[in-house]
Amino acid sequence: MRRFFVTTTFAMLCTLFGAQGQTIAQFKNTLAVADSLSGAKVECVEFGSAAEAVSKFDAQTTPAATLQGYRIRIYSGNHQLARAEAEAAKALFEENYAVPAYFVYDNPYFLVTVGNCLSQEEAMILLRSVRVHFPKAFIVMAEIPRAELLARPMPKVEESEEVPEEEAQMQQ
Questions:
Q1: Contact in structure between 65 and 150 (CB atoms under 8 Å)
Q2: Average pLDDT in the 7-21 region?
Q3: Taking a C-beta distance cutoff of 8 angstroms, is the pair 142, 118 a contact?
Q4: Whole-angstrom distance, CA of residue 129 vs CA of residue 98
Q5: In 28-122, beta strands by DSSP E
Q6: pTM score over 0.85
Q7: Where are the domains of the chain?
Q8: Domain formed by 66-150, architecture
């Protein structure tokens, strides 16, 4: 109850006496004055535009080596024949899909993951097509190297693709 009373009183006083924050100019002047103990000063530099500031920041920083993304786990096993089964799963996948596959031994598991998806939606589309051959496949989060994403083949779109007659009638 006491806390409510104090908060309410403070709010009323602020509205009555018009509590104001300091302006940017006042803040800069306060920072420019030397500190009494150390003699330190702060120099404020403003950029002309946001675009210029972003480009300067980008020039100073290096891009991340990896990005957070998603892959599809098509095999995971840790029994005696797990290595052979993992290699067979990877080979079967590579025969049927034009998507990169990765074989990893993460003690004690042999893992096969596929794809380099940036969004969950992209991973779900890939998962749906992969489940034809691997019904137990599932989506996992993964650190995807930037170089692998840049090397991804872009889907080819033919300019002279013909629209089937049924679709052409539906569009009209």
A1: no
A2: 61
A3: no
A4: 12
A5: 66-77, 101-106, 109-117
A6: no
A7: 1-44, 66-150
A8: 2-Layer Sandwich (3.30)
